[in-house]
Amino acid sequence: MLRDVSTATGTGVAINLDALKSEIRAVLINQKANACPIAARLAWHAAGTFDKKDGTGGSNGATIRFEPESTDPANAGLHIIRDLLLPVKEAHPEISHADLIGVAGCVAIEFLGGPKVPFKFGRSDDKDGKRCPMNGRLPDALQGAEHLRAVFGTRMGFTDQEIVALSGAHTMGRCHAVRSGFDGPWTTHPLRFDNEYFVNLVSKKWKKKEWSGPMQFEDESGKLMMLPTDIALINDDKFKVYVEQYAKDQDAFFRDFASAFAKLMSLGCPFSCDPTKVESKAPEESPKDKASAEFRELAMHGSVGPAQKLVSSGLADPHQLEATSGRSALHKAAFWGHIKMAQYLVNEVKINLDVQDVYGDTALHDCAKFGHDAVVKLLVDAGAKRLKNKAGMDPLAVAKHHNKPKVVAVLEA
User: Fold this and answer.
1) Does domain 6-111 sit in CATH 3.30.390.80?
2) Of 44, 186, 206, 336, which residue is the catalytic one?
3) Which one is catalytic: 44, 45, 92, 372?
4) Which pLDDT tens digit goes with each residue over 128-142?
5) Can 206 be counted among the known catalytic residues?
6) What dotted CATH number matches 287-412?
7) 186 is an active site residue
8) Which CATH number fits domain 145-254: 1.10.420.10, 3.40.50.970, 3.40.50.1000, 3.40.50.1820?
9) Measured distance CA(168)–CA(198) in Å, rounded
């Protein structure tokens, strides 16, 4: 679940979710754009093709990357998010496209103030579009209540309450005429996830918009819009009960939306991807793993004495790497410039100098970046290799890029 600090992907590789969320946020929210609404839409459309009768569709396989699914008119523009997420995927080959699309949609909702949606990894990627579901499975916004029940209820297995809760995703983002044909925002704050969508549905008067586009509704100001499927929620007595509830109680909406969206993300996926299913407990971390993690923590803080005691007790493996990053205790010490700890690791522990983490950085890259020239000299004298990281930079290039002249002098000597 997204509340975990770390978890395992479908390949069994552990990943730090806090770090992953930061990387996703950086590509979704920056000086160029806030792409959170469309990220949630991509996750929704990738999952919303599921048919419980034959098990086809859904997000497993990430078939939305291929034709004909990618060219479904309902998916117009969604390639933008796949392109935005590409740097994250390249940095994390252990994460499938299917998992990345899903987790990005979930955290995008959280970034805009919405609830934390439970999510589990474990989806795999198809190599081609042979399993693409037929186009036209996504809801038709021009239809009414029975269409919503046919798509969400009969085909995907959602209740009336879940259908209304999921419709609340319209509280963020807006329609674009160049993509869907519809135009305008549902709320006054399209980049905020709250219950305004429901408040607007019950508190404003909606009339058909007179324009050349497809049928949609507008409020008295003409600034806000609703789709026919939105208006169906207040014209249907069973749906309306939940609309009114969510308009009054945002906490109830957040709770039910998080549950329904988590269910949507797991449709058609392996059992392990469903956060609502009870699984056998994962084996507890061994005493040696706990002690080794504590040793790396001590290295990060330069606490030589306690680190030596852990090693001498035989509890900790000083050579063990951090599962989520591939970083060693030497990485930790070099990053923060702890020369005495680095000396202990190099001279007494005889730690591997050239371990590369998930970014391809060695300890020499880390101390070069931050100008820790004493640690740089120690590693150079000990025979550390001048390897290139995933960005194609060796430690000297890193030092020059970050304007660390003392380090440059040591590396060029």
Assistant:
1) no
2) 186
3) 45
4) 999 999 999 999 999
5) no
6) 1.25.40.20
7) yes
8) 1.10.420.10
9) 7
